[in-house]
Amino acid sequence: MYRLLLITSSSPEIRRVRRARVLNFQQITMPYLAAFVPGNWEVTHIDEAVTPVDVSLKVDLVGITFHTPSAFHVYDLAIQFRKRGIPVVLGGPHVTLMPDEAQQHADVIFVGEAETHWTQFLKDFEKGRHNRRYSSNTPPTLENVPMARKELFHRHDYTAGRLFATRGCVYGCDFCTLAVMYQRKVRKRRVEAVAAEYASFPGKVIIFWDDNMANDREYAKALFRAIEPYRKWWSSQASIQAGEDADFLELAARSGCKQLFIGLESISQASMNEVHKGFNRVEEYARVIQRIQSYGIAVQAGIVFGFDNDTEAVFSETLDFLEATGVQNATFNILTPYPGTRLYQRLEAEGRILTRDWSKYNGREDVVFQPQHMSPETLLEGYQYANRRFYSPASIFRRLSHSSVGLWWALPLNIAYMLAFWSNQ
Ligand code: B12
User: 34-83 pLDDT, tens per residue?
Assistant: First the structure.
């Protein structure tokens, strides 16, 4: 038997930054990649969000997935395993975006999606005949992919199920890494396979880690019909177009959709146009939010501060808007130019990247570029003001009394966020 250690990495800094988070957001990458591993390999998974990595483990190969803010931490981990003669293979968003950097810290890297080469790589590794770099030039089909290996998730009660139905997004917004990672090619699993995996979680609450559930609305509707009989509750991410399709919303609600994360990003149309997300029509926002809520689906707004058109007024104006529309939840982010994105290239060409210390690319505590109409400090303060105000008792009361959709769970969630936010101050 060969021994494979898979690590879902999160640096101590990003764990501290995200400490306030109250939800159980497990990533599926490693339990999913484990499902492709040949039977003569024994697989262990460590998710650093909950368990520290024991670098003295006796294994034959280590595979690590990570986001940009954890890159330096992962390179340190790699040194420790490689010092002991254990080869390290790296993959995930940062490797795909910065392959040459990652290659310097690993024996093998996977650029892009791994379905095409991963199993073959392991077989070649057994024979000592593997390559140093595997790239997926054509995004793989996901028609017949296996279910993630449940016993490798860090929560073994499966009260919360995590899976994906589709991968990729049709849009190419300047700040988003998906267009680079998945080449804007949307792939879909078979509806029956997704429904079977959905049903296989004993718990009631499910998150679809899809990039945009509204990419192919006909596919989504077929999926909603297929999962409805299991009477679970689910949430996912979707572009605002989800709110323009009554059948989509009706079927989503009937199948147990309780919340949609909608990437509103900004209440400024000029900002949306600036980053090639002009398909978000700001004047439609209030109507679309109310429409989604009218089906009993709560809205979690994804908001980004720091676009070139943003002035200091953006913070209070955004909060006025969110309160007036009764948005149930919001995730605020400081605009962060992840390497490899068009946004990064533009800001770099304009000499506005302030640091290449990837550990600061957390979108929550550090401003890594020079904003156009304010100082980095003002942007950070504005972001903090938005969180403070949104999760204050007065705002919670205003928002939830405006739209009482899902009050029984929106209220506890808001209180939990409020307590977590204040305990972090
Ligand atoms: C789940 C998720 C999370 C979860 C869990 C993350 C964790 N480690 O705890 C939470 C909510 C906590 C989270 C947090 C963050 N996230 Co996140 N997240 C996702 C999401 C929605 C799904 C990831 C997933 O499961 N994908 C499904 C799997 C199957 O796909 P995959 O990971 O791409 O893996 C494939 C290949 O990349 C490859 N591969 C990946 N890793 C490896 C490793 C090896 C060894 C091999 C061989 C292959 C391989 O094989 C897989 C099959 O093809 C993605 C979007 C996305 N589509 O990936 C964003 C995404 C990865 N996150 C992103 C961001 C920005 C963040 C945050 C920085 C946000 C923030 N400001 O706090 C933090 C950073 C957290 C951290 N720990 O570092 C960005 C990535 C940016 C970047 N450059 O790293 C993404 C792409 C979203 C986006 N639209 O831009 N995230």
Answer: 999 999 999 999 999 888 999 999 999 999 999 999 999 999 999 999 99
Q: Where are the alpha helices (DSSP H) in 84-216?
A: 93-97, 99-103, 118-126, 178-182, 191-200
Q: Can you list the pairs that 134-141 forms with residues at least 24 positions away whose Cβ atoms lie under 8 Å?
A: 134/108, 134/109, 134/110, 135/99, 135/110, 135/111, 136/110, 136/111, 136/112, 137/112, 139/112, 139/113, 139/168, 139/182, 139/183, 139/185, 139/187, 140/113, 140/115, 140/116, 140/187, 141/187
Residue 90 alpha carbon, nearest atom of ligand 1: 45
Work out which ligand 1 atom sits closest to the CA atom of 97.
83
pTM of the full predicted structure? 0.95
Ligand 1 atom closest to the CA of 68, numbered from 1: 84
At a CB cut-off of 8 Å and minimum separation 6, what does 424 contact?
Answer: 19, 20
The HSE-up count of residue 164 (CA atoms within 13 Å, CB side) is 24
The token duo for 341 is 């994105």
10 lines ligand 1 (CB under 6 A): yes
